[in-house]
Amino acid sequence: MVGMRPQRVEIQPGTVMNFWVPTEKSKGSSSTTVQPNDKRPKKAVVFLHGFAADGIFNWQFQVLSLANKYAVYVPDFLFFGDSITDSTDRSPSFQAACVAKGLSKLGVEKCTLVGLSYGGMVGFKMAQLFPDLVESMVVSCSVMALTESVSSESLRRIGFKSWSDCLLPETVEGVKAMFDVGTYKLPNVPDWIYKQFLEVMFDNRKEKKELLEALIVSDNDFIVPHYPQRVALLWGQNDKIFNMETASNLKTQLGERATLESIEKGGHLVPLERPCVYNNNLKKILASLLEEGALPHNMIYIQQTWRASSPRVVS
Protein backbone atom coordinates (compact mmCIF):
# COMPACT_ATOMS: atom_id res chain seq x y z
CA MET A 1 0.00 0.00 0.00
CA VAL A 2 1.50 3.30 -1.16
CA GLY A 3 2.45 5.54 1.75
CA MET A 4 1.82 2.84 4.37
CA ARG A 5 3.76 -0.01 5.88
CA PRO A 6 2.83 -2.77 8.35
CA GLN A 7 4.25 -2.67 11.86
CA ARG A 8 3.63 -5.28 14.53
CA VAL A 9 3.32 -3.91 18.06
CA GLU A 10 3.53 -5.99 21.23
CA ILE A 11 0.63 -4.90 23.40
CA GLN A 12 1.46 -7.25 26.26
CA PRO A 13 3.22 -10.62 26.49
CA GLY A 14 1.27 -12.98 24.20
CA THR A 15 -0.62 -10.20 22.43
CA VAL A 16 0.67 -8.64 19.19
CA MET A 17 -1.35 -6.26 17.04
CA ASN A 18 -0.52 -5.35 13.46
CA PHE A 19 -0.87 -1.71 12.42
CA TRP A 20 -0.54 -0.13 9.01
CA VAL A 21 1.31 3.11 9.71
CA PRO A 22 2.62 6.03 7.62
CA THR A 23 5.85 5.14 5.85
CA GLU A 24 7.47 8.41 6.93
CA LYS A 25 6.78 7.72 10.59
CA SER A 26 9.77 6.62 12.63
CA LYS A 27 9.66 4.72 15.90
CA GLY A 28 9.06 6.96 18.87
CA SER A 29 7.77 9.91 16.85
CA SER A 30 4.79 11.98 17.95
CA SER A 31 1.14 11.59 16.99
CA THR A 32 1.56 14.06 14.16
CA THR A 33 3.80 13.65 11.14
CA VAL A 34 5.46 16.53 9.30
CA GLN A 35 6.39 16.12 5.66
CA PRO A 36 9.57 17.71 4.30
CA ASN A 37 9.18 21.44 3.58
CA ASP A 38 5.82 21.45 5.38
CA LYS A 39 5.58 22.94 8.86
CA ARG A 40 1.98 21.84 9.36
CA PRO A 41 1.68 18.58 11.30
CA LYS A 42 -0.67 15.89 10.08
CA LYS A 43 -3.58 14.96 12.33
CA ALA A 44 -3.88 11.28 13.21
CA VAL A 45 -6.89 9.41 11.75
CA VAL A 46 -7.41 5.79 12.82
CA PHE A 47 -9.55 3.48 10.68
CA LEU A 48 -11.30 0.59 12.47
CA HIS A 49 -12.44 -2.22 10.20
CA GLY A 50 -15.58 -4.32 10.04
CA PHE A 51 -15.83 -8.04 10.74
CA ALA A 52 -15.70 -9.46 7.20
CA ALA A 53 -12.12 -8.44 6.38
CA ASP A 54 -8.88 -7.06 7.78
CA GLY A 55 -8.06 -3.39 8.08
CA ILE A 56 -6.30 -2.59 4.83
CA PHE A 57 -8.83 -4.49 2.69
CA ASN A 58 -11.73 -2.72 4.39
CA TRP A 59 -10.22 0.77 4.14
CA GLN A 60 -7.99 0.55 1.05
CA PHE A 61 -9.82 3.27 -0.91
CA GLN A 62 -9.92 5.65 2.04
CA VAL A 63 -6.23 5.17 2.84
CA LEU A 64 -5.26 5.96 -0.74
CA SER A 65 -7.45 9.07 -0.66
CA LEU A 66 -6.45 10.47 2.73
CA ALA A 67 -2.87 9.42 3.47
CA ASN A 68 -1.38 12.55 1.91
CA LYS A 69 -3.28 14.90 4.22
CA TYR A 70 -3.53 12.87 7.45
CA ALA A 71 -1.34 10.55 9.47
CA VAL A 72 -3.38 7.41 8.80
CA TYR A 73 -3.28 4.34 11.05
CA VAL A 74 -5.10 1.10 10.28
CA PRO A 75 -4.98 -1.62 12.97
CA ASP A 76 -5.94 -5.22 12.40
CA PHE A 77 -8.12 -6.33 15.28
CA LEU A 78 -7.07 -9.42 17.21
CA PHE A 79 -7.54 -12.59 15.10
CA PHE A 80 -7.56 -10.52 11.91
CA GLY A 81 -4.55 -10.05 9.67
CA ASP A 82 -1.37 -10.64 11.66
CA SER A 83 -2.86 -9.72 15.06
CA ILE A 84 -3.00 -12.45 17.67
CA THR A 85 -3.37 -12.98 21.42
CA ASP A 86 -3.24 -15.79 23.94
CA SER A 87 -5.79 -13.96 26.10
CA THR A 88 -9.27 -15.46 26.45
CA ASP A 89 -10.90 -12.02 26.55
CA ARG A 90 -13.02 -11.56 23.42
CA SER A 91 -14.86 -8.39 24.43
CA PRO A 92 -14.93 -5.17 22.37
CA SER A 93 -13.40 -3.48 25.44
CA PHE A 94 -10.29 -5.66 25.15
CA GLN A 95 -9.97 -4.90 21.44
CA ALA A 96 -10.37 -1.19 22.28
CA ALA A 97 -7.72 -1.32 25.00
CA CYS A 98 -5.28 -3.11 22.69
CA VAL A 99 -5.75 -0.58 19.89
CA ALA A 100 -5.33 2.30 22.36
CA LYS A 101 -2.14 0.83 23.84
CA GLY A 102 -0.77 0.11 20.38
CA LEU A 103 -1.40 3.69 19.29
CA SER A 104 0.30 4.92 22.45
CA LYS A 105 3.37 2.81 21.66
CA LEU A 106 3.37 4.28 18.16
CA GLY A 107 3.40 7.77 19.66
CA VAL A 108 -0.21 8.73 18.88
CA GLU A 109 -1.54 11.01 21.62
CA LYS A 110 -4.74 12.33 19.97
CA CYS A 111 -6.76 10.98 17.07
CA THR A 112 -10.03 10.88 15.20
CA LEU A 113 -11.56 7.42 14.76
CA VAL A 114 -13.35 6.21 11.64
CA GLY A 115 -15.19 2.97 12.36
CA LEU A 116 -17.34 0.66 10.24
CA SER A 117 -19.77 -1.85 11.79
CA TYR A 118 -17.73 -3.94 14.28
CA GLY A 119 -15.07 -1.24 14.11
CA GLY A 120 -17.65 1.34 15.14
CA MET A 121 -18.56 -0.70 18.22
CA VAL A 122 -14.90 -0.98 19.20
CA GLY A 123 -14.53 2.73 18.45
CA PHE A 124 -17.35 3.64 20.82
CA LYS A 125 -15.58 1.62 23.54
CA MET A 126 -12.35 3.47 22.83
CA ALA A 127 -14.13 6.83 23.04
CA GLN A 128 -15.71 5.82 26.34
CA LEU A 129 -12.59 4.32 27.93
CA PHE A 130 -9.94 6.65 26.49
CA PRO A 131 -11.49 10.13 26.06
CA ASP A 132 -8.07 11.81 26.18
CA LEU A 133 -7.00 9.81 23.13
CA VAL A 134 -10.17 10.01 21.04
CA GLU A 135 -11.01 13.58 20.05
CA SER A 136 -13.83 12.81 17.61
CA MET A 137 -15.41 9.97 15.65
CA VAL A 138 -16.90 9.13 12.28
CA VAL A 139 -19.11 6.06 12.52
CA SER A 140 -20.64 4.13 9.62
CA CYS A 141 -23.33 1.47 9.87
CA SER A 142 -22.81 0.54 13.50
CA VAL A 143 -24.28 0.80 17.00
CA MET A 144 -22.96 1.73 20.44
CA ALA A 145 -23.49 -1.85 21.56
CA LEU A 146 -25.13 -4.89 20.00
CA THR A 147 -27.99 -5.38 22.42
CA GLU A 148 -30.14 -8.50 22.27
CA SER A 149 -33.08 -6.60 20.81
CA VAL A 150 -31.02 -4.88 18.10
CA SER A 151 -29.26 -8.16 17.32
CA SER A 152 -32.44 -10.22 16.96
CA GLU A 153 -34.18 -7.57 14.83
CA SER A 154 -31.17 -7.20 12.54
CA LEU A 155 -30.82 -10.97 12.09
CA ARG A 156 -34.54 -11.26 11.36
CA ARG A 157 -34.26 -8.53 8.75
CA ILE A 158 -31.37 -10.20 6.87
CA GLY A 159 -32.65 -13.75 7.27
CA PHE A 160 -29.88 -15.38 9.34
CA LYS A 161 -30.13 -17.30 12.60
CA SER A 162 -26.81 -16.12 14.00
CA TRP A 163 -24.03 -13.65 13.23
CA SER A 164 -21.54 -16.44 12.67
CA ASP A 165 -23.83 -17.93 10.01
CA CYS A 166 -23.68 -14.61 8.16
CA LEU A 167 -20.13 -13.42 8.84
CA LEU A 168 -18.19 -16.69 8.89
CA PRO A 169 -19.22 -18.38 5.63
CA GLU A 170 -17.82 -21.78 4.74
CA THR A 171 -18.63 -21.87 1.01
CA VAL A 172 -18.48 -19.59 -2.01
CA GLU A 173 -22.27 -19.34 -1.90
CA GLY A 174 -21.99 -18.29 1.73
CA VAL A 175 -19.55 -15.51 0.79
CA LYS A 176 -21.97 -14.34 -1.89
CA ALA A 177 -24.82 -14.32 0.63
CA MET A 178 -22.70 -12.24 3.03
CA PHE A 179 -21.92 -9.67 0.34
CA ASP A 180 -25.52 -9.67 -0.83
CA VAL A 181 -26.56 -8.65 2.69
CA GLY A 182 -23.72 -6.15 2.96
CA THR A 183 -24.25 -4.28 -0.29
CA TYR A 184 -26.95 -2.35 -2.12
CA LYS A 185 -26.19 -4.42 -5.22
CA LEU A 186 -24.21 -7.68 -5.19
CA PRO A 187 -20.89 -7.15 -7.00
CA ASN A 188 -20.82 -8.85 -10.41
CA VAL A 189 -17.49 -10.64 -10.06
CA PRO A 190 -16.43 -14.18 -11.00
CA ASP A 191 -16.67 -16.99 -8.48
CA TRP A 192 -12.90 -17.36 -8.22
CA ILE A 193 -12.69 -13.97 -6.51
CA TYR A 194 -15.25 -15.06 -3.90
CA LYS A 195 -13.30 -18.32 -3.53
CA GLN A 196 -10.04 -16.45 -2.93
CA PHE A 197 -11.75 -14.17 -0.40
CA LEU A 198 -13.06 -17.28 1.40
CA GLU A 199 -9.59 -18.81 1.55
CA VAL A 200 -7.81 -15.65 2.73
CA MET A 201 -10.18 -13.88 5.14
CA PHE A 202 -11.72 -16.56 7.35
CA ASP A 203 -8.97 -18.08 9.47
CA ASN A 204 -9.19 -18.21 13.29
CA ARG A 205 -12.84 -19.30 12.99
CA LYS A 206 -13.19 -20.47 16.58
CA GLU A 207 -11.86 -17.23 17.99
CA LYS A 208 -13.89 -15.07 15.61
CA LYS A 209 -17.06 -16.90 16.56
CA GLU A 210 -16.24 -16.13 20.20
CA LEU A 211 -15.74 -12.45 19.27
CA LEU A 212 -19.23 -12.38 17.76
CA GLU A 213 -20.76 -14.07 20.80
CA ALA A 214 -19.04 -11.57 23.12
CA LEU A 215 -20.57 -8.65 21.20
CA ILE A 216 -24.15 -9.27 22.32
CA VAL A 217 -25.23 -7.65 25.58
CA SER A 218 -28.48 -7.77 27.51
CA ASP A 219 -30.85 -4.85 27.00
CA ASN A 220 -31.16 -4.56 30.78
CA ASP A 221 -27.37 -4.31 31.20
CA PHE A 222 -26.82 -1.63 28.57
CA ILE A 223 -26.72 1.97 29.74
CA VAL A 224 -26.14 4.67 27.13
CA PRO A 225 -22.77 6.28 27.94
CA HIS A 226 -22.13 10.00 27.70
CA TYR A 227 -19.60 10.80 24.99
CA PRO A 228 -17.83 14.16 25.19
CA GLN A 229 -16.59 13.73 21.62
CA ARG A 230 -18.39 14.96 18.54
CA VAL A 231 -19.61 12.05 16.43
CA ALA A 232 -20.46 12.19 12.73
CA LEU A 233 -22.62 9.34 11.44
CA LEU A 234 -22.08 8.52 7.75
CA TRP A 235 -24.48 5.79 6.64
CA GLY A 236 -25.34 3.67 3.65
CA GLN A 237 -28.96 4.62 3.02
CA ASN A 238 -29.75 1.05 1.95
CA ASP A 239 -27.99 -0.71 4.83
CA LYS A 240 -29.91 -3.93 5.46
CA ILE A 241 -28.15 -4.81 8.72
CA PHE A 242 -28.36 -1.50 10.60
CA ASN A 243 -30.98 0.45 8.66
CA MET A 244 -31.71 4.18 8.71
CA GLU A 245 -34.07 3.77 11.65
CA THR A 246 -31.14 2.32 13.60
CA ALA A 247 -29.01 5.28 12.49
CA SER A 248 -31.65 7.79 13.62
CA ASN A 249 -31.97 6.04 16.98
CA LEU A 250 -28.19 6.20 17.40
CA LYS A 251 -28.16 9.91 16.63
CA THR A 252 -30.86 10.44 19.27
CA GLN A 253 -28.81 8.49 21.81
CA LEU A 254 -25.74 10.59 21.07
CA GLY A 255 -27.59 13.88 21.39
CA GLU A 256 -26.71 17.36 20.17
CA ARG A 257 -23.05 16.62 19.43
CA ALA A 258 -23.91 14.15 16.66
CA THR A 259 -24.73 14.62 12.99
CA LEU A 260 -26.17 12.13 10.48
CA GLU A 261 -25.68 11.92 6.72
CA SER A 262 -26.59 9.08 4.36
CA ILE A 263 -25.37 7.94 0.96
CA GLU A 264 -27.86 6.81 -1.67
CA LYS A 265 -27.43 3.36 -3.22
CA GLY A 266 -25.05 2.42 -0.45
CA GLY A 267 -25.34 -0.67 1.72
CA HIS A 268 -23.63 -1.77 4.92
CA LEU A 269 -20.23 -1.86 3.19
CA VAL A 270 -20.65 1.66 1.83
CA PRO A 271 -16.91 2.61 2.03
CA LEU A 272 -16.16 -0.27 -0.36
CA GLU A 273 -19.33 -0.05 -2.44
CA ARG A 274 -19.34 3.70 -3.09
CA PRO A 275 -15.77 4.76 -2.28
CA CYS A 276 -15.71 8.02 -4.25
CA VAL A 277 -18.91 9.39 -2.69
CA TYR A 278 -17.91 8.10 0.75
CA ASN A 279 -14.44 9.66 0.49
CA ASN A 280 -15.78 13.05 -0.61
CA ASN A 281 -18.11 13.16 2.36
CA LEU A 282 -15.50 11.80 4.76
CA LYS A 283 -13.05 14.51 3.73
CA LYS A 284 -15.64 17.21 4.43
CA ILE A 285 -16.54 15.66 7.77
CA LEU A 286 -12.93 15.34 8.89
CA ALA A 287 -12.19 18.92 7.86
CA SER A 288 -15.25 20.08 9.79
CA LEU A 289 -14.40 18.08 12.90
CA LEU A 290 -10.78 19.18 12.99
CA GLU A 291 -11.46 22.82 12.09
CA GLU A 292 -14.35 23.11 14.55
CA GLY A 293 -12.10 21.75 17.27
CA ALA A 294 -10.66 25.26 17.61
CA LEU A 295 -14.06 26.95 17.94
CA PRO A 296 -15.81 27.83 21.21
CA HIS A 297 -18.29 25.20 22.35
CA ASN A 298 -21.30 27.49 21.95
CA MET A 299 -20.39 28.18 18.32
CA ILE A 300 -20.04 24.45 17.68
CA TYR A 301 -23.49 23.98 19.18
CA ILE A 302 -24.97 26.71 16.97
CA GLN A 303 -23.45 25.16 13.86
CA GLN A 304 -24.68 21.68 14.75
CA THR A 305 -28.16 22.92 15.63
CA TRP A 306 -28.32 24.72 12.29
CA ARG A 307 -27.76 21.45 10.45
CA ALA A 308 -30.95 19.60 9.61
CA SER A 309 -32.10 17.26 12.32
CA SER A 310 -32.98 14.71 9.63
CA PRO A 311 -30.07 13.11 7.74
CA ARG A 312 -28.63 14.91 4.75
CA VAL A 313 -28.76 12.63 1.73
CA VAL A 314 -25.91 12.57 -0.74
CA SER A 315 -25.67 10.64 -3.96
Automatic annotation (TrEMBL):
Keyword annotations: Hydrolase
Domain spans labelled AB hydrolase-1: 44-162
The keyword Hydrolase appears for this protein: yes
Name of the protein in question: Alpha/beta hydrolase fold
Sections of the chain in a coiled coil: none
Species the sequence originates in: Parasponia andersonii (Sponia andersonii)
InterPro entries: AB_hydrolase_1 (IPR000073), AB_hydrolase_fold (IPR029058), Meta-cleavage_hydrolase (IPR052370)
Keyword Hydrolase: yes
GO molecular function: hydrolase activity
